[in-house]
Structure formats: C-alpha cells, structure tokens
Amino acid sequence: MVNPDRVSLDRTFSALADPTRRALLARLGEAGALSVSELARPIPMSLPAVMKHLDVLSDAGLITRRKTGRTVSCRLSAGPMEEAMEWLAHYQRFWSGSLDRLAALLEQEEAEQR
Amino acid sequence: MVNPDRVSLDRTFSALADPTRRALLARLGEAGALSVSELARPIPMSLPAVMKHLDVLSDAGLITRRKTGRTVSCRLSAGPMEEAMEWLAHYQRFWSGSLDRLAALLEQEEAEQR
User: Fold this and answer.
1) What is the ipTM for the molecules in this complex?
2) Mean pLDDT for all residues in chain A
3) What is the value of pTM for the model shown?
4) Which H or E run includes B87?
5) In chain B, how many H helices and how many E strands?
6) What domains does chain B contain, in order, with CATH numbers?
7) In A, which residues are within 8 Å of B9 by CB distance?
C-alpha cells in the first residue's frame, strides 16, 4: 500500500524543485491573492507554460484557485510546506547551530508579520 | 545568469521528492555511516537502482561517499536540508500555530539527541 503522506511529500518536494514555481509561491506569499494574468505578467514564459506550473502547485495543494467571473485568483496554501518542514526538522541535529538560526529566522518572520 | 542558490534548492527539493531517497536519508540519519550494500539490503530494488538514487543524493550534496578498500560508506550531509528549511521558514506565518509546533519538534529532537 502506498502511504498517502509519502505521496504528499513526493508532490510537495517535486513542486518546490522548480525556480519558477518557487517564485510564484514567493509572489503569492507577498501579495495574498493574485490573478493568473498578474502572476504570469513578469515571467518570461508563455501563459500556458505558467498555467502548467500553477497546475503542479495546485495538484500539490500549495495553491488554491478560485474563479470569479472570468478571473481566476490564486492564493498560497501552506499546509504542505508545514509537512515538508516537519520532515526536514527531524534532521536539524545534523547541522550546527540550527536551532539558534532557525529560531532567529522564525522570530524575524513573526516581527515582519506584525 | 543562473543563481547558484536556486540550482542548489532545485537539486535538494528534487532529490527529496522520492520516497526511496528519503528512506535512505532516514537510515543514514539513524545509523551514522552505512556501506552501500548495507543501505541496499532492505530495499526491494536492484543494487544499480539503489546506486542511482545514491548518485542523486550525492549530486545534491545530501550524502558523502568514502571508499575504503572495496567498501563505499555513505554519510548524511545535512547542509542542503538546512537551506531548504530556511526557504520554507519564510512561509511559516501562513500556517497556524507553526511556531509552537516547530519549537516542540525541535526540542524533542534535541532531547532525543542527548
């Protein structure tokens, strides 16, 4: 039997393995919701190529898409990232000073959020 | 120009997107160093197939291999995982209670390490 968590991690890591997809997630992280055309505009790629990347992100559960009239808006859905981070966290003892650095990073993120 | 950090994240996430490769890393995390044949033994796959997975992990910098006589021993090299975790940490504000959960996970890992 295939473990569903495994399949989910496969999809998450695979979706994150592309710089265009990571850039799309970064922009959604900053902007909240963006339409497909807003997302595609700065990317030197055809619209169908960008839409394929959005399909991969959507299949991995990393974005949600919502159609309003003729506009499809996309939002970040970070649940799978949390799973990926938990998997990676099991290995943090193998890098030095990780706890301090990660804590600092998380604190910085929290401060930016306020 | 291609950003080397991007290429490195591509390789890391791509290497982690396979359950066999994650299982190999998990065993190295528990055992420290293991020979290629020790690593391959429990895996229902041919030795060359396992060796291909080890090549991917090595290319991503996630393991190091060292030859002593006729034995190749493998070790976890967690640096790229740290980079991946730092990338993911930028998104932690998008999932709820993450800081508490992650802090708990890291504390648990630290306790197990002692």
Assistant:
1) 0.83
2) 87
3) 0.83
4) helix B79-89
5) 6, 3
6) 4-113 (1.10.10.10)
7) 16-17, 19, 22
